[in-house]
Write a structure and sequence with these properties.
Blueprint (H helix, E strand, L loop, with lengths): L1 H6 L10 H8 L4 E6 L20 E8 L2 E9 L8 H15 L4 E7 L5 H6 L3 E11 L5 E10 L1
Parallel strand pairs: 3-4
Antiparallel strand pairs: 1-2, 2-3, 4-6, 5-6
């Protein structure tokens, strides 16, 4: 949740709350990965050992041969240092082992992460007009992207 709170600007209302994340993680089709500032996965040891500080995470869900990237977040201090790229590379590798052939994501128009998505081969495949509501009430379009793996 520390990464979530640091990574998402409250003006856009994109961050999930603890309950939303916990509910998603109860589903067997939901996958999560947390990485450190070098992009290395941080294992969940469950023994209370905190290990390295988290710098980013990805949360996905899959059905059959498709996976949806629900959230990807990198703390501001670790941006533009390869952490987001490492998260996507780990996601693609894990998705392949699950037999996934296509990954989808949705983002608000104007999100600077579009540069990362384009770099990794995501292409726009759809649009939802006025889908997101910002904190000030303004509506923003959503763009859906897809990528074969």
């Amino acid at each position: 949740m520390m990464v979530m709170e640091a990574a998402f600007d409250p003006a856009y209302g994109e961050a999930w709350n603890r309950r939303q994340v916990a509910d998603a993680l109860t589903l067997s089709s939901t996958q999560a990965l947390v990485v450190d500032a070098d992009g290395a996965p941080i294992p969940d040891t469950g023994d209370g050992d905190e290990g390295p500080a988290p710098a980013g995470f990805v949360l996905t869900r899959y059905v059959l041969d498709e996976e949806e990237l629900l959230l990807i977040a990198v703390i501001p201090d670790a941006r533009r240092r390869g952490v987001g790229a490492a998260l996507l590379e780990h996601l693609f590798a894990a998705a392949r082992t699950r037999g996934v052939t296509r990954i989808f994501l949705e983002m608000r128009r104007g999100n600077p992460a579009i540069q990362l998505y384009h770099k990794f081969g995501f292409e726009p495949i759809g649009e939802r007009r006025n889908y997101y509501r910002m904190a000030n009430g303004e509506r923003v379009d959503a763009i859906t992207f897809g990528r074969s793996i």
